[in-house]
Specification:
single chain; alpha/beta; FAD/NAD(P)-binding domain; Guanine Nucleotide Dissociation Inhibitor, domain 2; Guanine Nucleotide Dissociation Inhibitor, domain 1; 3 domains; 7-stranded mixed sheet; disordered C terminus; GTPase activator activity; GTPase activation
């Protein structure tokens, strides 16, 4: 192990595995280590079911009614992929899609006054939706047409809106949209977790709604995709990509010390040996003294024998509870998948509730979501601290990821990956450049 590497990566969370793959494709010599014996770190999929019981200190074995333990792959951190989002682009460009199979999530729902409603995904659905009254539907339709046509480089499409100055609150006012419509547009289409966006320039929100619409247009039922056998397949896919380009992987490797000289990382010590490096990527758990706590997330994994009520018996869905509806500052999310995705025994469903903690009684905070799921056969509750790096890596050349947030999609994770990439290389992450590199190299790999 006494070798020199361009980059050493610690931890096999999705962020670390994607960066490891990208750096390998760029021709860097990469060593990737994890103290765990499995891929995924805190974003792993746990199998068999017995391991989930042990992890959450639930006494006894799972009941026989849960089927075979090996039939289960339960995500610790639930997230879906936006069909037209950044992670799908990364998967397509790097061809990691060849290692994975995806299913479309069957529906996206929003909570209003104690009930759930399908988020209208087409003009026809919008006109039929009981989320809005007749006149509101017409105004909402006009708003969607405005968003679809909006082009920041073409003033003719802007209808007097300045993308860098007009706030989103003013745009909603322009179309005379009511609070309930603003709630589901901002939280179920633009996927904001709080209402802070209302007083910011509108361009980001317009682009987010476009992303939702374009993702939806690809498959029709919802804008979300999910990999068969669980999210643990994603880091493994990028690990394979890294290996194709010469990346070296070592699981079950205790990390004894991160070796520094003159304030700069020079290597990692494991089992008495030092592997040297120029740059280090890691998750916060490897260097807690260079992080700051930025909050907490509660997640409740629920095993059920039935689909969620009022979802047309969907095998998979997302429900967003906008914060205004339950007098909170942050939204509550419900992700549900099932045996149809090879993550549960036949006839079983896994729903995961998550939100940002605001009080000293987190379980009470998710009560509105838990009531939608009843009856629940078994639940597993975790409250995780969230960390962000205090060291941005300019001097130390240590580049740390952020802890996964409560959102149920990977867009924030991809923003973190692009931010780390820029700090490491000094250049913006360029999808087109990755595409070119992949085309240059994949031909050679395919011939091998």
């Amino acid at each position: 192990m006494n070798e020199e590497y361009d980059v050493i990566v610690l931890g096999t969370g999705l962020t670390e595995c994607i960066l490891s793959g990208i750096m390998s494709v760029k021709g860097k010599k990469v060593l990737h280590m994890d103290r765990n014996s499995y891929y995924g770190a805190e974003s792993a999929s746990i199998t068999p079911l017995e391991d989930l019981y042990k992890r959450f200190n639930i006494p006894g074995a799972p009941p026989e009614s849960m089927g075979k333990g090996r039939d289960w792959n339960v995500d610790l951190i639930p997230k879906f992929l936006m069909a037209n989002g950044q992670l799908v682009r990364m998967l397509l460009i790097t061809q990691v899609t060849r290692y994975l199979d995806f299913k479309v999530i069957e529906g996206s729902f929003v909570y209003k006054k104690g009930s759930i409603y399908k988020v209208p995904s087409t003009e026809t659905e919008a006109l039929a939706s009981s989320l809005m009254g007749l006149f509101e539907k017409r105004r909402f339709r006009k708003f969607l047409v405005f968003v679809a046509n909006f082009d920041e480089n073409d003033p003719k499409t802007m209808e007097g809106v300045d993308p860098s100055k007009t706030t989103m609150r003013d745009v909603f006012k322009k179309f005379d949209l009511g609070q309930d419509v603003i709630d589901f547009t901002g939280h179920s289409l633009a996927l904001y977790r709080t209402d802070d966006y209302l007083d910011l320039p509108c361009l980001d929100t317009i682009n987010r709604i476009k992303l939702y619409s374009e993702s939806l247009a690809r498959y029709g039922k919802s804008p979300y995709l999910y990999p068969l056998y669980g999210l643990g397949e994603l880091p493994q896919g990028f690990a394979r990509l890294s290996a194709i380009y010469g990346g070296t992987y070592m699981l079950n490797k205790p990390i004894e010390e991160i070796v520094m000289e003159n304030g700069k990382v020079v290597g990692v010590k494991s089992e008495g040996e030092i592997a040297r490096c120029k740059q280090l990527i890691c998750d916060p758990s490897y260097l807690m003294d260079r992080t700051t706590k930025v909050g907490q997330v509660i997640r409740v994994i629920c095993i059920m024998s039935h689909p969620i009520k009022n979802t047309s018996d969907a095998n998979s869905c997302q429900i967003i509870i906008p914060q205004n509806q339950v007098n909170r500052k942050h939204d509550i999310y419900v992700c549900m998948i099932s045996y149809a995705h090879n993550v549960a025994a036949q006839g079983k469903y896994v729903a995961i509730v998550s939100t940002t903690v605001e009080t000293d009684n987190p379980e009470m905070e998710v009560k509105p979501a838990m009531e939608l799921l009843e009856p629940v056969e078994q639940k597993f509750v975790s409250i995780s601290d969230q960390y962000a790096p205090t060291d941005m890596g300019a001097e130390s050349q240590i580049f740390m990821s952020r802890t996964y947030d409560a959102t149920t999609h990977f867009e924030t994770t991809c923003d973190d990956i692009k931010d780390i990439y820029k700090r490491m290389t000094g250049t913006e992450f360029d999808f087109a450049e990755m595409e070119r590199k992949k085309n240059d190299i994949f031909g050679d790999v395919a011939d091998q």
